[in-house]
Specification:
The structure is a single chain. The chain is mostly beta strands and 60 residues long. The protein contains no helices and four strands. A four-stranded antiparallel beta sheet has the order 2-1-4-3, with no helix packed on it. The model has no long low-confidence stretch (mean pLDDT 90).
Length: 60
């Protein structure tokens, strides 16, 4: 069931934080599929503090 309120211990799509590699402290919050992406996510996203695109890495 999609909206069930059971525990999220082994969720297939956990919520992860993406932190900017530019050192600005900017974060994005997203979900990832553990089966398709078992490694840490690295995405190129916009960092508004430096006004450019940089890599954001998954933080645990």
């Amino acid at each position: 069931m999609a909206g069930s309120s059971r525990g999220r211990g082994n969720d297939v799509r956990p919520i992860v934080k993406l932190r900017s590699t530019a050192g600005t402290g900017t974060t994005y919050v997203t979900r990832k599929n553990r089966r398709n992406d078992p490694d840490r996510l690295v995405l190129s996203k916009y960092d508004p503090r430096i006004r450019r695109h940089v890599e954001f890495k998954e933080e645990r």
